[in-house]
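RECORD TYPE: inverse folding
INPUT: structure tokens
STRUCTURE:
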């Protein structure tokens, strides 16, 4: 436990907490930025309990950040096989990393990133996609050694948005 919060790897019993914090952080991040209908549809489908069960069943790893008292979920990271342009052998994807804004600046995002980087041992690069208009996230990723390698359009609830694909080389 650090400063009232801790990070732990997700297990099969954590799917509801993962789904809840995924939707909460996505709505908080993109309400007023992306179409409201797209945000809602994305949360219903991409952040459902079944969606996270499928990710974990396919070999994904996820971590929850929880706050005391009560261990309420306040952030998470999800790492999967890559599904990004320019992905190749030796790559792994940080599919999602979010922290509720009231906890920004507490080191939780950096701790989640450290978990993902440590879990990527044996891979050549860590990839991720980020909304092109999310300057704060892009700056966070640059601080952690990510650089742009491609662009893509990302489907959020049936609407397409511009993303930047970033990569971070990993130590051999």
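DESIGNED SEQUENCE:
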């Amino acid at each position: 436990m650090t400063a009232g919060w801790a990070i732990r790897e997700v297990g099969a019993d954590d799917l509801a907490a993962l789904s809840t914090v995924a939707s909460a952080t996505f709505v908080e991040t993109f309400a007023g930025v992306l179409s409201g209908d797209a945000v809602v549809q994305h949360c219903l489908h991409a952040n459902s309990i079944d969606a996270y069960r499928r990710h974990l069943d396919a070999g994904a790893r996820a971590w929850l950040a929880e706050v005391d008292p009560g261990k309420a979920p306040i952030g998470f990271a999800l790492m999967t096989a890559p599904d990004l342009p320019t992905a190749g052998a030796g790559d792994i994807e940080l599919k999602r990393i979010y922290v509720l804004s009231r906890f920004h600046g507490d080191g939780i995002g950096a701790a989640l990133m450290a978990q993902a980087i440590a879990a990527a041992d044996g891979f050549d690069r860590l990839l991720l996609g980020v909304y092109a208009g999310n300057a704060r996230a892009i700056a966070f990723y640059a601080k952690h050694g990510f650089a742009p390698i491609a662009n893509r359009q990302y489907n959020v609830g049936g609407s397409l948005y511009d993303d930047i694909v970033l990569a971070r080389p990993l130590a051999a």
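NOTES: The chain has a mean pLDDT of 95.
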